[in-house]
Amino acid sequence: MAGSSHPRRPVSSSGGDADRPVKFANRTSSGRVVSLSRDDELDTPGDYATQNDYINYTVMMPPTPDNQPGDKPDGPTVYPPPSSRFRSDGQGHVRMGSHASDADGGAGGGNSAGKLDRRVSFLKNNNKSMLLRSQTQDFDHNRWLFETKGKYGIGTAFWQEDQFGNDTGMSMQDFMDKPWKPLTRKIHVPAAVLSPYRVLIVIRMVVLAFFLAWRIRNPNREAMWLWGMSIVCEIWFAFSWLLDILPKFNPINRTADLAALKDKFETPSPSNPKGRSDLPGIDVFISTADAEKEPPLVTANTVLSVLAAEYPVEKLALYISDDGGSILTFEAMAEAVKFAELWVPFCRKHDIEPRNPDSYFSQKTDPTKNKKLPDFVKDRRWIKREYDEFKVRINGLPDVIKKRCKMYNKNEEMQEKKRIKEKNEGELPPDEKIEFTKATWMADGTHWPGTWYDSAPDHAKGDHAGILQIMSKVPEYDPVLGGPDEGRLDFTGIDIRIPMFAYVSREKRKCYDHNKKAGAMNALVRASAILSNGPFILNLDCDHYVYNSMAFREGMCYMMDRGGDRICYIQFPQRFEGIDPSDRYANHNTVFFDGNMRALDGLQGPVYVGTGCMFRRYALYGFPPPRANEYTGVFGQIKTPAKTIPSDEEEPLTEDHPDLNLPKKFGSSTMFNDSIAVAEFQGRPLGDHFSVKNGRPPGALITPRPPLDAPTAAEAIAVISCWFEDNTEWGDRVGWIYGSVTEDVVTGYRMHNRGWRSVYCITKRDAFRGTAPINLTDRLHQVLRWATGSVEIFFSRNNAILATRRLKFLQRIAYLNVGIYPFTSFFLVTYCFLPAFSLFSGHFIVQSLNIAFLSYLLIITLTLVCISLLEVKWSGIALEEWWRNEQFWVIGGSSAHLVAVLQGLLKVIAGIEISFTLTSKSAAEDEDDIYADLYVVKWTALFVVPLMIIVVNLVALVIGLARQIYSVIPQWGKLFGGAFFSFWVLAHMYPFAKGLMGRKGKVPTIIYVWSGLISITVSLLWIVVNPPQGNTRNDATAFNF
Fold it and tell me: What is the chain's Cα-based Rg?
């Protein structure tokens, strides 16, 4: 393969010496250049790497007082990487080196020769290398350069034009002046914001402890039941607040350098003379399961946005998982590929953003902004017409397929009649029943192997054969430039290739558990390993499209940077379209995506949220990271290297000790097992700097991908069969993890638990955008699914309490909070009823509103407000978004979270399985009112408890106010405490109440019915608990509880 050795380039000194081979050299901060071999590079400590640049050339310079001649180094050879056609024996350690040479130069501009090359070893001492400490401060470098006219740190080497310069378009000086640059940068939150934030958290923790102690020591003896409920709830709230706030102690920001990525991987260099892309491959997974709830047009637009992404075409492969086996999705994808042949070059020619055609043509901004080509308007008009025709074809596919099936089935019926007539001597018996199977037919006149419209054996949902269809073949390795076309688009000089695209529908049978989305993702992992074996995997939901065409490159910056080999995945934030302007139900969820996730990035990394995530394939296979650490001590403050002898489940592959248990772990496919070592090698960062550990040599990935053949396709079909995972570790330790409706969180947790870390990539332009349910019922069911998965996690072995020592302490707290937060619903519902109980009984949670209670309450409230303001400051969210999040936390906690805990307990105790239906994705066809779904009221049992909280608090306010008005001696203090508390609860419930009103305040009848029932029930309960007294004495309206 290319990149097996570094090309040798002759050099010449000013003294007319013979040609010399190029060597690797390092330039220090003072300008001094020291020759290095590749062995020296790999052995150099990392702290030196952060302050020095790496240069791939040898310089000729006169000796100076701090640069004396040394010894001539030996140059080791460079071993080639494993080939792209899978061989497990390519996993060996790669050594990199350069050939040694002597160099001559003159001091002071003379011609006296000196032997300048020497081997340098670096020793760490007080975090400084020997080389840095050798720089003397007494010597004036600038004065010496001026007096001697020496070429200090510049060099006199040159490339011979006939061997390199003319082919690449780069001169010798370009290579000499190119410093080593990091691909990413970590930006810490300013101390002026973070320090007060941390101090206030500590202050509030202390005040909460004193407040709870005071509450326990000062019970309300007139209403012990009320005091007892309140103190239990407050203790739990303090505990849950700690779980939520502690992981936010170290939020950070990150930025990627796309120019440095292009310069490092796609610019001509000695190891890559033609400047081919040396980036690793990416396999993109798009998942869909129901063509009715997930419209094919939405999925097709997502596919088009991926195919048009700015990433080397030959390094990108797209796979769509159709878990429903629908012919409608299949033919829609075929139409999408045809349209992509026009849409993708159009996007490249005019630099279109976003590259989802539906989103692009729906923009309200000026489409000609920043467009300079004179034919843009004509091209846009023409492609818009093509897209409209494409949409019409997609919309008409159901009718086309049904008409085709009807025609073929009619023909089958006639054939069956003919057969019966031949059997009965040309007559059709009157009592003879024509029996034939109504099949679903493909365009070529064959039976569709997936799900039929009329279910039949082997052709039903959950019972059909595996399907694999290459919609777009592996592209040519070199760019294919288009040309002019009469009356159509002019693609002269534009690369018209599109990435490889495959349709996959795994085999399903009734006797096998298909494990929902996790099983579909694992089938794609295996099939893609056979077909393309990209070392990185990006998964997207069918309604989450690529909004930023450079997003793939930004994610790759983190994977390919120094230390990137320890990153298991890059999580991008979820951004949504079609949300109502007020974001009534907190669909944007910016508090989580811009607050919590950014804070987790400062620990061991963000959690995996199910979409918009770029995985390292090797990490998905269940292997541990290189150079893993363990965290011991009470708070995990002691960091030590992990055991050198890993456990059985984490044993890595080596060349000398191959893993003989691969079939047991991954299945019986030899081709798949051989691909593992290749994926691991190709996913390594570029070993172009001595501080990069576990790197690969430059130019190792510039060879073309082998074409697909019949045996390869047959193997890919075999690995998506339903029986392939039998007696393997798929879903247990390998791939997406089974056993939870929130398989995404569990999968990310398992990787962190092995010692991997993840990165949160927030791009300036949103990387991906999707849709979210704006209907209240759909939103609550979505929250119910998430909360149910969290309860399952809490009662499983994936509970963070059982995590290994490779999980950081605060990261463990964050995962513990993921499993515990639904249980807050019990205490939240109780606390929401407390103000009503207080108003009904005439008592409050404290004996009296004294100075101590009010002081604690004031301090706790002020510190919370200040903490929230500072959190808004460092996370960049708006105050309105923070308040919407608080409101929906109460709404969801009193409805979906409560039901989720009950369902989770039923599953754990009684073994009752939980099933959920897909959330419908909108095709955005109603352009007159895109928020029409917001006003639709769909009654669900989840409404009962929040509605009860609202009605009970309203009734309590009326009763409490009436008591004080008609009382001989009013006690307004007790009314104020309960009324303020009740108004606070109702303020959080306002979006829920507004959602029940429907369009223009038209409340559905069922809401009135339930409100009446709840009011009557509360009144009857109150009469039973506190019947009217016959002897009213001094107070005719006295209430006793």
Answer: 34
The three-state (H, E, C) secondary structure of 570-611, written as one string: EECCCEEECCCCCCCCCCCCHHHHHHHHHHHCCCCCCCCCCC
Q: Does position 398 have pLDDT exceeding 90, yes or no? A: yes
- Binding site per annotation, positions for Mn(2+): 517, 541
Q: Name the amino acid, one letter, at 283.
A: D
pLDDT digits (tens, 9 = 90+) for 488-544: 888 999 999 999 999 999 999 998 999 999 999 999 999 999 999 999 999 999 999
Whether the predicted pLDDT of 337 surpasses 60: yes
Pair 611, 544: CB distance under 8 Å: yes
pTM of the model: 0.80
User: For residue 470, what is the enclosing H or E element?
Assistant: strand 467-472
Residues contributing to the annotated binding site: 287, 293-294, 323, 516-517, 541
Coil, strand or helix at 671: helix
Angle at 461 between CA 456 and CA 464, to 5 degrees: 65
More confident residue, 1010 or 983: 983
pLDDT at 845: 87
**Rounded to 5 degrees, what angle do the CA atoms 604, 607, 820 make?**
105
Cα distance between residue 930 and residue 477, in whole Å: 44
Catalytic residues: 323, 744
The pLDDT value given to residue 987: 94
Average pLDDT of the chain?
80
Domain boundaries, the chain: 191-249+822-923+930-1023, 279-365+376-644+653-772
**Single-letter amino acid, residue 584:** R
Q: How far apart are CA 387 and CA 361, in angstroms?
A: 9
Architecture of domain 279-365+376-644+653-772: Alpha-Beta Complex (3.90)
Instruction: Tell me the percentage of the chain whose pLDDT exceeds 70.
Output: 76
The CA distance from 408 to 417, in Å, is 14
**Which residues are documented as binding site for UDP-alpha-D-glucose?**
287, 293-294, 323, 516
